[in-house]
Amino acid sequence: xxxxxxxxxxxxxxxxxxxxxxxxxxxxxxxxxxxxxxxxxxxxxxxxxxxxxxxxxxxxxxxxxxxxxxxxxxxxxxxxxxxxxxxxxxxxxxxxxxxxxxxxxxxxxxxxxxxxxxxxxxxxxxxxxxxxxxxxxxxxxxxxxxxxxxxxxxxxxxxxxxxxxxxxxxxxxxxxxxxxxxxxxxxxxxxxxxxxxxxxxxxxxxxxxxxxxxxxxxxxxxxxxxxxxxxxxxxxxxxxxxxxxxxxxxxxxxxxxxxxxxxxxxxxxxxxxxxxxxxxxxxxxxxxxxxxxxxxxxxxxxxxxxxxxxxxxxxxxxxxxxxxxxxxxxxxxxxxxxxxxxxxxxxxxxxxxxxxxxxxxxxxxxxxxxxxxxxxxxxxxxxxxxxxxxxxxxxxxxxxxxxxxxxxxxxxxxxxxxxxxxxxxxxxxxxxxxxxxxxxxxxxxxxxxxxxxxxxxxxxxxxxxxxxxxxxxxxxxxxxxxxxxxxxxxxxxxxxxxxxx
Length: 501
Fold this sequence. Notes:
- Residues 23-337 form the Alpha-L-arabinofuranosidase B catalytic domain.
- By secondary structure, this protein is mainly beta.
- Strands 3, 13, 15, 22, 23, 24 and 26 form a seven-stranded antiparallel beta sheet that branches.
- Helix 1 (23-29) runs antiparallel to helix 3.
């Protein structure tokens, strides 16, 4: 939408002016203004009417900025839906609402390489994390392993031992034990520059460095070469496991003082898990923060993590608990909710998957009997028992991402549908992270309006597609024959039906 921006911020008289203060208004009132503010769901200033994020569609590489709607500034998800209809889109930019230009873009290689071209990290699929906020449809940033965003050249972010605060709203049910799902302050060269060169919010259940009570996940602080759950390296009893569907997570730090706080993003207040001196380990007092911003990765571009981000900010100065409590009250007031995906398979159920392309509406996804490859073939009530069993799947919680699903073969127990060199087949899955991700697929709204589409858990722009009766992980218009743009939306849409066996 066309708006007059003032240094990236809208003027106070803009049509998006809110009836009450939003998070960055509250931080400013508390004397600790936002110096970075990112969200794909809503404005974080009451006077903001600019861009929230940018998407790029697969069909032609075109991009579109997604802005806000009217008063309160909720995301214009309808603009994304229209622009991305019949294809897939990736989130290419998370715009900074503070006016300082601290935009997050595709993370470059660093101490670790990413899976995308040139060693960059993947970008998030734009429709993978649908929510409603204030009754309006919106999308979060779904971070699969290998996905990451970064800004190594920032303006106003704390460096050295300067005080700062940050919060993020996450999906508290989407996490893993990889390193490291972070949002916050990191190194400016994408490498590990030693203890104290980071200060970021971490969320997940890794126990290599620090952990709290229970089995996780935990909100901790990534201070580089240590995830800290409290003053001590390793275990701290004051840091509980938390798994709210919408989780508010906060970290703040200043000279020899830092804190972790968290709460339910749908109701209630914040709890303080730690508030005290810097860790009992060398290198963290004073801090040596460098001022880059990361999302979904560690400071050295370690990118094995998973999570979902909706909104977050970084501040100049150490915010008071009262200010953070007011921000939490605003977050809970806007009514974040998770809509159910119609037609998605249920974990534990037996299903068959029917093609929706006009040529093939009696065809189902099955494994071949002559080899291990997956294919589509007609199945009917008169089909043999063997053919019916080959087209039946048991839905399991995702082997590589518990927020997604895996498909166990009904007639080959212990073997799962997976992609290997882009071709889908049934296979026994070993304990490696790669194999488990290859066998994990994330249901989302279908590309043609029928059934659902299944996104590859480790290749965000690839979806389960039938092509010449074979089945592949296919992008829209990529370099392989099975990436053909012809009928792509239909070929990647599947109806979940009752099982044939």
